[in-house]
Please model this.
Amino acid sequence: MAETMLKKEYAKAELLKLNNRFSDLNGHAPLAYVHSFGCQQNVSDAEKLKGQLSQIGYDFTDDMTSAQLIILNTCAVRENAEDRVFGTIGNLKKFKQQNPDTIIAVCGCMAQQKHIAQKIKSTYRQVDLVFGTFAYNDLYQMLFEVLSQKTRVFNQTEKITDISEEFSQLRSDKLRAFVPIMYGCNNFCTYCIVPYVRGRERSRKPEAVVKEVRDLVSDGYKEITLLGQNVNSYSYGFAALLKEIDRIPGKFRIRFMSSHPKDASKELIDTIIESEKICKCLHLPLQSGCDRILKLMNRHYDKAQYLDIINYARSKKPEFSFSTDIIVGFPGETYDEFCETKELIKQVKYDNIYSFVYSRRSGTKAAEFEDNISDKQKGLWLRELLLEQRDVTTNWLSRFVGKTVEVLAEGEGRLADGYLTGKNDEGIIVEFKADKKYIGEFVQVRITKAMNWALEGESVEDK
Ligand code: 5AD
Ligand code: SF4
Model:
């Protein structure tokens, strides 16, 4: 442990020297381009990588071609995310020939998988550094090895180290912040690669989480999203953590994701409803509305148990908002079984659905299941689901018309000039007429119209 720390400190000091020399020669700091694919956890990881990089003298750029260090932080959940990364790396081949001193790194969930690391090693020689999700804290040592020894470095360690609380972060947003409360997943849903690339569940100490949120609020952050693959299995009690964060003084809102339906308790719903700052919405990934498929997915709940939670929440607060994830075309799923999912969507009335065609992930259990439906057919089912959802959501969103809701104004709107955009408590996009001076503030907005992708309204403050 002590030896690792020494190596890390040494590498850090040497990198800082190298980068200072670069700045002296070029009149500007070396630039890093850090791009994340996939989920919010990845965004959060990238903010920590950027925090480390800024401590050794890097500045940041959005222009990949002007960078001295390119980091692609990848996602492995579906094949198309992987294809996009391979496309980006492929396009960098010529760039690397013309800019041999630029370091190209691939990290994250894809890079954790040995077969991917092997593929990059043999086929994508333009990549200098490939490191998985357990190696983020070794960034300095890995980068120093690449630069000082002019070698390629591959680090797919599976060794779990203690959760480090001594990281600096460079956050990409000034208003909304992601705060991981736990890492990894123990559930092994049969379609999912996450437990293989992020390891078993580890929870951060509540004191550390609460301190981070407190600091963010005093820095002016207005929306805190707690992250975990399954926040309901937070070791120190999720409802208790929520209650404690809710008591932090200041005007801000709390969101969290994701909740596994098997662990979403009535206590959780009560905590949300009784709280002051927790948004009255729950992202509850359904995946399928058919009991046989849920069993094959190893989800540990059935349709009735899922509806029980929904009904409980709606009995306490009829307009309680739910969003969900759906997988279309799981191996062996029939059209009738897919229709059961469509039925459940109508019954639940979601405000938002993230739906995906099943993607085979090698190493998972479902990858071995027989799958007779073509991707083309699954694509048609997905379209059918999206059409169904459009009607359901538009109808359900109309419950807000005529009401005044609180919106956190994020920036200029898309609808027309003079509009701002933001989200209400339920996480629904609201486009509203208001002065630009409200950007970054909570605004009271009277809703005039429900569209299938957003609500429209006008600020009450300007009246
Ligand atoms: N294929 C399609 N979708 C997947 N998801 C996870 N694994 C797969 C897969 N192999 C979806 C689930 C999950 C969301 C984050 O991604 O719906 O909730
Ligand atoms: Fe994947 Fe299931 Fe874990 Fe979510 S709960 S990350 S879907 S294995």
